[in-house]
Amino acid sequence: MDLTIIIVSFKSGEILDRCLDSIDDKYPVIIVENSLNKDLKNHVEKKYKNVECILPSENLGYGAANNVGINKAKTKYLLILNPDTILQNNTLDELLISAKKIKNFAILGPKIIDGDKINEKEINYNNLKKTETSIEKSISHVKGFAIFINKEEFKDIGFFDENFFLYFEEIDLCKRVIKNGKKIYLAPNALVKHSGGQSHIKSINTPMELSRNWHWMWSTFYYYRKHKGFIFALLMISRKFFSSLIKIIFFSLTFQNAKREIYRHRLSGLINSILGRKAWYRPKV
């Protein structure tokens, strides 16, 4: 097979099974489980004969864990997939058809299914018109829930920046792809259903929400500093910084502790990123 599917998960539970059920078992799947859950490894490897589950020694985050799977895979093509996705019967076939048509692509992106309809608003590809959706179209970036990669095109630029723990990894990757003169395309007939925000079990929603807010702000500043410089990054996050500070004070005075904690984590993520500290925060689960 020319294709390996890579899934990074963290306490995904039944959502991961739902995703795996939608994948044709003729394709190898590598799961990198960041919660170090041996029971999950035993479960998926027993239930799905095409699945190998890797348990790293620590929670690596999205980018670094994907890099583990990428380095493990031996195939020409890779599909980076989120656990909260469901493939259609012909999704992989359509991606491979587009890959054969284009040949020199670095990344292909599928379309998103929202409910029972294709969500045109969520496609988020530059210069794409509805009248052009029947052909492969050159675009500037793709959504991170499903990224089809031509491994050969990444020899000179590398894969995910492991300084990101969560968020902006695929945006940074696409930016480097375009900067190095390589191509990203839409595969118009490849459809993937993406639930969004449902990649973990519901019982850990609160600590995961705090973690997401911390890392969203850390990654925002880091991304802009990396590509535009420190001063530009400061200007971009200044409103978020003062907004978080004001809301911490307001929610403290009104005894809304849950909301206060969200903005406290946002502010902490920003401050740590501004000070050049690593994305050290981990969800307390």
Question: What does this protein structure show overall?
Answer:
- It contains eight helices and ten strands.
- With 285 residues, the chain is an alpha/beta fold.
- The protein has helices at residues 14-21, 38-47, 61-72, 91-102, 169-179, 205-228, 230-253, 257-274; strands at residues 3-9, 29-33, 51-54, 77-81, 85-87, 105-114, 117-118, 137-139, 146-150, 183-194.
- It has two domains: 3-194, Spore Coat Polysaccharide Biosynthesis Protein SpsA, Chain A (Alpha-Beta Complex); 202-274.
Question: Main traits of this protein?
Answer:
globular, 285 residues, 2 domains, 10 strands, Spore Coat Polysaccharide Biosynthesis Protein SpsA, Chain A
Calculate the terminal CA-CA distance, rounded to whole Å: 37 Å
Q: Mean of residue pLDDT?
A: 91
According to CATH, what is the topology of the largest domain? Answer: Spore Coat Polysaccharide Biosynthesis Protein SpsA, Chain A
Low-confidence stretches: 116-132
- Contiguous helical run count: 8
Percent in helix:
40-55%
Taken together, the total number of domains comes to: 2
Biggest β-sheet strands, sense, barrel: 10 strands, mixed
Quickly give the CATH architecture of the largest domain: Alpha-Beta Complex
From the alpha-carbon coordinates, what is the Rg to the nearest angstrom?
A: 19 Å
Structure described in brief:
The protein has eight helices and ten strands. It has helices at residues 14-21, 38-47, 61-72, 91-102, 169-179, 205-228, 230-253, 257-274, and strands spanning 3-9, 29-33, 51-54, 77-81, 85-87, 105-114, 117-118, 137-139, 146-150, 183-194.
